[in-house]
Amino acid sequence: MVDAPILPPESGRPDDRRGRGYLMVAVAAALFAVNGIVSKVVLLGSDLSSLELTQIRSTGAAAGLLVFLLAFARARLRVARRELLFLVLFGVTGVAFVQWLYFVAIEQIPVGIALLIQFLAPLLVALFARFVYREHIRRRIWVALILCISGLGVIVEIWSGVAFDTIGITAAFAASFALAAYILMAERERRHRDPVSLSFYGFLFAALFWAAVQPVWQFPWDALQGSTSLRGNLSEHTAPIWLLLAFVVVVGTMITFSLLTGALRHISATRASIVATFEPVLATAIAWLWLGETFGTAQLLGGAVVLTGILLAQTAR
User: Which of 144, 220, 229, 241 would be 313's cystine partner, CB 3.0–4.6 Å?
Assistant: First the structure.
């Protein structure tokens, strides 16, 4: 859905083909990780801003999902009047801002660090459920909270000042709050709407929101022309900007979404989310191999602590 495949609960029960479900989620997480690297290459190698890249991704995903629904499930496009305001808020808050803030973050800081911070969303959701919904939450949430705060402190080396760009860190934290809002809203709406049409309307209203911010006639279409270096360890190679953008929309959004949706037929959303949590690990490895992004001992240790806390938070509700 977004570059952090944290999924809302699904009403369908898992079947005995769990291996297939786990494989689908793992492939989706890997593609999401690669998509983050490709998006960073586009941001650094073209004249597109993070907002413009978000606009392209939202519009392309909305168009692709619309084609799919028109071809295979036209009835799912129906919208009740009572749903409309919610879907608009979902698209703007839960989709538009998650993507934009993530792109702002990876443009300034390593992809793995941005994803680790963004993946704090399950912790925020669990805390929201505890204090707002008054749900029963397992005690492990407090351990998860301590681990995440401690690990993040180590990652940014808070004892010597923030070791990374302040704008990037702030954007990543803001993205985690936006992603938490997305999860909470998706949980609410899943009782009334299937994941495919919900995602379509999310991307649709995100695209309309960005079109209002930057009308189509003001979009820098010239930035889609030409080629850019793939940077890092692949800097001797180039690729057309339009081809990289097509990867972001088709592979990094459409295919990954299809894999995640399909996986929920075989495994529960909680298990899928736990497997998907390894996206930051994969993204860190790919960023090292491709872009040459490296981390010190503090970042590696802190990342392991944060990841442990996130996994605990995923199972706290």
Answer: 144
